[in-house]
Amino acid sequence: MTALPLSLILLTSCTQPAERGSFESLSIASGTTGGVYYPIAGAISQIVGSEIEGVGATPEATAASVENLRLLGAGASELAVVQGDSAYQADSGEGEFAEKPVENRALLVLYPNVYHNVSLRSIDDRLDLDCFSDVKGHRFSVGAPGSGNELTTSLVFADLGMDFDDIDVQRYAYAETARALREGQLDAGSWVVGEGHGSLRELEATDPLHLIPLCGDEVDAVVEDHPFYTSHIIEGGTYSTVSDDVRTVAVWNILTVRPEFPDKLAYRMVKAVYENADAVNRVYQPGTEYLVPESLRKSPVPLHPGALRYAEEAGVDIPLKLRG
């Protein structure tokens, strides 16, 4: 499915209130068709269509998190798969959303995205990229414009006292970043993805990877500044060409909605997905251990009342700060 340009969607969304207000035909803003968000949204759409009578859902291909939240705020989509940092900033009116917050509530907590700073072994042999700050002065892809990848990278840079003026900045999607690394047009780039992402496995099939670590003080700076990031280790062997553990940070992905999304429908959707989690796990197997009710405790934004009801029925103790 080809995504409409954001500007066109925003202009036309005001002409669709009757359809959108009915909550019978749900749009799930996801990501690019080559990423993980899109097939996850597709699996959730299939569950909704088969398990909830009178309700259909469709995954929409987009530039991912930041655009998804803007679509949610504009009423062009009812649900959005997003990174937790984007959801937190939208709900709090910070960063990209300082001028136009998007209040949102979590339905599902999916899996953690891990911040990968990716170069090639051949490039590291020449540049000695031992810690993240070593990318200063080099050609670096921060992610596609409007993506959660770009947002995360900008926050990490800021936490380390850097900005995009410190690098020869490029804004490529993952496939373009991989190609540019192979062709010698980049020195490094960021991937904010689940471990073992297919595009990284494809890249290392032809070129051994070098994952640039966040050194100890760098991790501490990021985690202390932002409650939605956690310290994370990419264990050696996760990628066949990277034998050592690599220290970095991670952020959870969620399925989020506006607060006014109907409570009963939200509850039915959450229940249906957890009872049919195998359908989601088949399209993204690394997320299997995380797609459980207990992960709702990890949400970066308060839970929607429908999700909170399900969590309580499942015996999950939800912190007060996530109760809305």
Automatic annotation (TrEMBL):
SUPFAM superfamilies: Periplasmic binding protein-like II. NCBIfam families: TRAP_TAXI. Signal peptide: none annotated. Pfam families: NMT1_3. This is C4-dicarboxylate ABC transporter substrate-binding protein. The lineage of its organism: Bacteria, Bacillati, Actinomycetota, Actinomycetes, Streptosporangiales.
